[in-house]
Amino acid sequence: MAEFNQVYARAAYYDIAFRRDISREVEFIAAEYQRLNGRPLASLLEIACGPGYHVRDFARRGVRAIGLDLMPEMIDFARAEAEAEGVQAAWIAADMRGFALSAPVDAIITMYDSIDCLSTGDDLVDHFRTVAKNLTPGGIYLFEVTHPRDCSMWNYGSHAYRGERNGTKVEIIWAVNNPVPDPFTQVAKVETILRVTENGKTTDYPDTAHERFTLPQEFIALIKLAGGLEVVECYGDFVQGLKMDNSPASRRMIFVLRKPVEP
Ligand SMILES: C[S@@+](CC[C@H](N)C(=O)[O-])C[C@H]1O[C@@H](n2cnc3c(N)ncnc32)[C@H](O)[C@@H]1O
C-alpha cells in the first residue's frame, strides 16, 4: 500500500538520489540580496530544506542559517550531516503554512519545487503571509519551481533520480502513474517508487505525493492577496537578468519577492 510522502521520511535514501552541487544557486541568492539591499546577506531560512544542502552552504559562507522541514526525519538527518561537517546551523521541524522564528531573517528560500506541496490557494496565501512575517524589512523571498513547459497540468513528463553511495543504490521513479491533475483543484496524485538496492537485495517503497500546479499569474495574484510582499522579478534560471520566458535558456521559474522597507 502506498504511503503519503514517505519518500521524505527516508532522508538518507533521498540524500543518495538528490545530493547535488547547489553552489551556483547559493551565489545567485546572495547576489540578489546584495543587489536589492546594498549589503551582504546576514541570515537565511530555507523552507522545506530536506537534507539542508543550501542551509549548510550558506552557513559555511558565514550566514546565520536555519533549515525548516515538515519531516522530523529530514531535520534529524540534516542536523547530523551539519554536525559531522562542523557546520553551525539551526534546524526546525514545522509546517511552511505557519511558523514563527525567534528573530526575522534577511532571506527565505524554498527550492526544488517544494512549494508544490501546498495544495490549495488558501495554503499558499497562509504561506506567503507567514513568510512576510518572518522577514526583515527589505528581506527577500525566493522560490523555485520547474518551468511550466517541462512539467505542467497537461504535460507531467517522466522524472527519475538515481544515486549510489557505499554500495547502496537508490532510484526514485517519479510519476509511475502518468498523473493527470484534477482540472479544478490543479492537484495531481503522483505515484512514486523509491527503489533501494543494498546487500544484494532490492526493495521498492511505493509512495504518493500530492502536487499542485500554479501558473505565474496565479502566483502573482495570490502574493497580492496575501499582502506584505512585492514581486521583484521572475527569473528563468539562476543567472542575473535572465527573465522567465519561453527561450531554451529559461528552464526554471524563480520568483523573487521583497518585503517593503516601509510597511
Ligand atoms: C522536493 S523536497 C526538497 C528538499 C530540498 N529543499 C532539496 O533541495 O533537495 C521537498 C521537501 O518539502 C518538505 N515538505 C513537504 N510539505 C511541507 C510543509 N507543509 N512544510 C514544510 N516542509 C514540507 C518535505 O518533507 C521535503 O523534505
Q: What is the N-to-C succession of helices and strands?
A: EHHEHEHEEHEEEEEHEE
> Taking Cα atoms only, what radius of gyration do you get, to the nearest Å?
18 Å
State the separation between the terminal residues, measured CA to CA.
Answer: 50 Å
Shape: globular
CATH homologous superfamily (4th level) name of the domain at 18-148 and 213-258: Vaccinia Virus protein VP39
Proportion of β residues?
25-35%
Number of beta-strand segments: 12
Structural class based on helices, strands and sheet pairing: alpha/beta
Q: What would the average pLDDT be, to the nearest integer?
A: 95
Helix content: 25-40%
Q: What is the count of helical runs?
A: 6
| Widest beta sheet: strand line-up | 4-3-2-5-6-12-11
As residue ranges, the low-confidence spans are: none
Query: What about the largest sheet?
Result: 7 strands, mixed
Attached small molecules? S-adenosylmethionine
The CATH C-level name of the domain at 18-148 and 213-258 is Alpha Beta
Looking at the overall shape, the CATH architecture of the domain at 18-148 and 213-258 is 3-Layer(aba) Sandwich
Q: Per CATH, what is the topology of the domain at 18-148 and 213-258?
A: Rossmann fold
Short characterization:
With 263 residues, this protein is α/β, with parallel strands linked by helices. The protein has helices at residues 11-18, 23-37, 53-60, 72-85, 121-133, 216-226, and strands at residues 3-4, 43-47, 64-69, 90-93, 105-110, 135-146, 159-165, 168-174, 187-198, 201-212, 230-235, 252-258. It is globular.
